[in-house]
Amino acid sequence: MKITFFGTSAATPRKNRRNTSIFFEIGERKYIFDMGCNVIEDLSNRGIDCEEIDAVFISHMHGDHTGGLIPFLGNIDRPALFHIDPLICLPPPMEQTIDAYVAWRKCTSHREQRTFRFQEIEPGTFYDDGILKVTAYRTEHCWMSFAFLLEAEGKRVFFSGDFSREPEKEFPYEILEQPLDVAICELGHFPAEKYGIIFAEKKPKHLYIAHISSRFLKTIPPFAESADFPVTGAYDGLEFEV
Ligand SMILES: [Zn+2]
Ligand SMILES: [Zn+2]
Hints:
The protein has 242 residues and is of the alpha/beta class. It is built from 6 helices and 14 strands. Strand 9 and strand 10 form a beta hairpin. The longest helix is centred in the middle third of the chain and has 15 residues.
């Protein structure tokens, strides 16, 4: 499994740090978790066609996780590209988001719109294509936000989406009952030391801190220095194998 950070910023994009999006390649399969930035550019720069994307997963609807979603859908909403048909997994109420897309699309063209394959995310295992299994956990960040556990090739990867300001109260500790290969966790709402509390007993093999607020960026180096497990501050373009 190869993981690439397309964007690693929380809220307002910063110099060389765009909003959150993470690209997963598992064998021939390709998946995108959150689309805070225009991922078409990232895919094009890597010689990857939108056609190759199997599924997209959105943790919640805030703009720093969805800013690239409408450009992505709009790009493949052309007759010549109707064959590109990734599954788009959205938090509930999914119909509200679909209506918003349809309304936006009508502003750009009156010709007939295509249909997409949408799936509403629900807590528990909601996606399993035989290669990747995704389990959703509700977080307290907003009224409908999720974290995800990804299981593929015998590896387990956690992606936090966004937490509230007290992540230690809502972290899905049950995922740590089995070895966790990678945790990709946000730093938009609290300092990095919070992960010292969360992972005090059971630790991931590697923690990547992403979705970084400029307010808390400086808390990563001292935490990484003191942690008794590997901690990396992610940046746009960082890629690694699991
Ligand atoms: Zn966010
Ligand atoms: Zn958010």
